[in-house]
Amino acid sequence: MKKTSAMTLTDLGFGAVANDERKRFELRGNILKTLFALFLWVISTLSVSAQKSAVLDAFSKHGIDAGILDPNYLQQPEDFAYDLRQTTIAGGKETVIEAKFDPAGPKDEQWTVVAVNGKSPSKSDINSFRKNQSKPAESNQADIASYRVEKESSDYLVVSYKPDAASIPRDATFMKDCRSYMTINLKNKALEQVQVLNEKPVKIKILNAEKFDVVTKYSWNGQAKRYFAMNQNLNILAKFLGQTVTVQTTSEYSGYTKK
What we know:
Helix content is about 20%, strand content about 40%. It is an alpha+beta fold and about 260 residues long.
């Protein structure tokens, strides 16, 4: 992988562990675990459970189904099988996980890890992935007072909201300083993407993030009558000990099949 001018987590060493390979490996593993847990929470909060009149008025004006604000529209389905390919660049290394979800299997075995970096996964890889994926979704809501129409043109409607602070789990308190932007195509009346952006620098575990950006793209399935996440990109630009740290994760979803 080509090295950039930005320092990586490995370059930094994170404290007194620069010369201890085992500790650096464990730290990188903890960062990846945090990312997995974060992804589960973010994708569960991209939907909203409250409604604001200004947004509903805009929906009515353009003939958009207000059901788009229903949390069930955007959460990952529990009655569909699908494939996941997740690529994470952190600690100066790239990790690619290929996995499959099948709701027909036992609760603890619904996720099958197919490969890690193109090789058969270890038992530890499988257990770690399943543990993070099995964490229950929080019951999140939007802050009703935060709704607003950001943009309205002949092609697109963009509305935004912030999460209700009381519904944010302790591990993701920084989300109170983030805003979500829903982009709706006015030609086909369909949601295209949801972007989550920090409004000011935020603290994510040991990182002081100047930028936290998550973009999830959706596709409407007429037969299933619901939205499916197709692609999600996470980008974090942060500082640690005065140096730049970058984290990038891309999740690709495919093969949705009703079970």
